[in-house]
Specification:
- By secondary structure, the chain is mainly α.
- The protein has two domains: 2-184, Cation efflux protein transmembrane domain (Alpha-lytic protease prodomain-like); 190-264, 2-Layer Sandwich (Alpha-Beta Plaits).
- The chain is built from eight helices and three strands, in the order H-H-H-H-H-H-H-E-E-H-E.
- The N and C termini lie far apart (55 Å).
Length: 276
Amino acid sequence: MLAESVHSVADSSNQGLLLLGGKRAARQASEVHQFGYGRVRYIAAFVVSIVLFTLGGLFALYEAWHKFADPHPIDSWQWVPVVVLLVAVALEAYALRTALREANRVRGDLSLPEYVKASRSPEIPVILLEDTGALLGLLFGLFGVGMTLATGDGRWDAVGSAAIGLLLVVIAVFLAWEMRSMLIGEAALPHQQAAIERALAGDGIDRVVHMRTLHLGPDDLLVAAKVEVSATDSAAAVAAAIDEAEKRVRASVPLRLQIYIEPDLPGRDGGAPAGE
């Protein structure tokens, strides 16, 4: 019960962190942060993983060790923890249902595991994982309490707490790894990259020499491309072609875009970027 209580406090704090991160990320770009503050949302989600690991997982493991070293049966008010956990299971199942509904609305053809790994927006995947972990944790807690009541052996309570702790540690490590990747910088999703590359080609642009994308935040994308133009086109014609290409690119994906396009002449690739 104590492990699940601390887990609930950690979850509530984490939702507050995500809300704060979303609010801070909405600030306008500044002279110091010229591409804006979108990555604050990734930082908030990374802090969530730390809170889940320490306040949730490590505390539950400590509580399991303490209860196993000094076990106690549940002597009085035996029905209270069972009722509390059953009510919590019902409430958490409803919360998970809401999170699943939101995920299903935006994940498209991706399975839930694929969506959690591929999503560039941290909030729904984090909430999905937290709610799933919370529901499983409550079931582990119910198992530990139930077995303690049935056998009178308080070590079953320690088993339940240990299961909760291990579950939270695994979820926290997975979240931290995913947010680490986003903080380093991930490209647009493959289908978005393909849509952008198709949109770049058009009147006045013969081909895309190379292109790079980088998420500046969940909804903000940097697009840098080198394109081939005709050697006979005037500077005004090239500028007009690039302007039209930018319009097509902005219409191709539902993101806020920072676009930088460099023209090049046939037979002069100007040097491929690192990694090519």
